[in-house]
Amino acid sequence: MKLMINTAHQRFGGAVQVALSFINECRAFPEHEYFVMLGPGLQKLVNVEEFPENFHFEKFDFGAINFRKSFAIHKAMKAMEIKYKPDVVISTTGPTYFHSKAPQIIGFNLPLYLYPESPYVQTYTGMRKLKFAFKKKLHYYFFKRDASAFVTQTDDVNQRVRKELGFDKVYTVTNTASTYYNQPETFANKLAPKAESLYRFVTISAFYQHKNLELIGDVAKVLEQRGRKNFEFVLTIKPEELERVFKGQAHITTVGPVPPKECPSLYRECDAMFLPTLAECFSASYPEAMIMDKPIITTDLGFARSICGDAALYFKAKDAEAAADQIERLLDDKELEATLIAQGHEELKKFDSPQERAKKYIELCASMAKAQA
């Protein structure tokens, strides 16, 4: 099978990590030929010299994507399809802005469209609400025009995509932590040595608005007001973002953006994972924390509970007092900490491994190619 893996439009985000994992795992299936379209998000992570001869790479950078760029993207990808003649095209996220002749499988990872009940979406008013509605309608047009099938990461998202797009060919292939977590490498510590009593909460995320990272500042203030001093929030945002948002606030630090293979090492330096996000289709932070034996404190929303189950403590969205309550529970109860870690090991069993995920993707591609033949 000749498989075109399209990441040309991907610049950042969790889908980049999914694509990276998939591309790497494809080496275990040498019977196929792979044509990989590398966008800027993947170019800095993929060493093309490490891949065998059945892999062919092309590099693209369309810059920030807008409607006018969609024509250039389609033209460039169409040229690649003519050049390589793939049996099927797959992208871990969309829209791809590319209407291929071959069947195309697209990952759906736009939670704000699927979860209108999200507290983040509920804040939209006026012109912002109108722009959001227009963008959603435009994206849905491209999804419906270009996709032969969709892939989602949870069954809940699967059902919502079916309802939103009126599409039957929607398949669930769960996300998980990358292979970097199977045998984590050791890197130099990014944090100063800590006192035994200090409890560190890590949040591995870029500064996206829906991640609601600003809440961390409010939570830190509440904990300080309650007399707590033995805690620290560790972020991976840029230093200038830390200064702009938190203005030198105590108990909050950043190590800056961290390469994926170094994230397990950062987890080792911390004690728990804190994620105040308001909308996700999936967050790999959840299984990552489970694998690294870190308890989870996160927002009490449907997507979080569908992924974490009993392996997390939950707090009302955007409620700093409620988040502080759960943090204090964890700080004061070692037995609770052990229970959450053990439950995390159980929850991990429901996720596909990176190898299983790649196998499912390839099997889906093969079935689509066969149906087209």
TrEMBL record:
Keywords: Transferase
Species for this entry: Croceimicrobium hydrocarbonivorans
GO molecular function: glycosyltransferase activity
The protein, known as: Glycosyltransferase family 4 protein
Any Pfam family matching the protein: Glyco_trans_1_4
Top-rank lineage group of the source organism: Bacteria
Coiled coil: none
